[in-house]
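chain below, 248 aa
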Amino acid sequence: MKLSIIIPVYDEAATIGQVLNSIAAVQLDRGIKKELIIVNDGSTDKTDDIVAAFRRDHPELELKYQVYDVNRGKGCCIREGIALAAGEIIVIQDADLEYDPNDYRPMLECMVAKADVVYGSRFLSGKRVTTPMHRFVNWGLTFLMNRFTKLHLTDVHTGLKMFRAPLLKSLRLEEQRFGFCPEVTAKLAKIPELRWTEVPVSYRRRDYAEGKKIRFKDGLRALYCILKYSRGRAQKIDPEITKAPVAE
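prediction:
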């Protein structure tokens, strides 16, 4: 079995090397192999050089690298990564240091045992990991998503999401930027009998001085996406996609 790790990156020269080395060091159980899919979203710093050096240093790793000439947005990068993914399971990994790749292991255990979708929740640990304002906004958006979709999530906008690949590939995703999070959640929520699970994950919040890119307007877009994608008819999905188990 293979885990496809999609990494959108835009001007993350300060962190991308550490993230890639952390991913390379993670030992996955059950003989699961790793496939790294890096989508460079028009970076103007040394990101390209760092990825090239990592590839030279780790010839044993399967790595696909797509470079855009201009910045297109995180959602666009994720769609490209989904199209390139060859693994049975897909995980989205940010290129900063906020999320720890070691959390793939408990997420994979849930995926193989009992889930179709696994979200890594920053808030299940009970620790304070964000500012009060950020926590309030996240709570509000998560509350609205749960209200409209009948889900019971604690962290809709987590940057660590894992999916069965055929399920994710079956969706028609549209959002160009950070709207990917509410869009994919709302569209998956319309598919009956999907098994959703959250697991606690570690989180080290960075601030804007460290390169954090999400802004207030992205929060407004998230609200719009919740209202837009949680309404209307569900996309037609091949029933076999939702029945097939994850191969061990």
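The mean pLDDT is 88. Strands lie at 2-9, 33-41, 62-68, 89-92, 117-121, 161-164, 196-200.
thats it, cya
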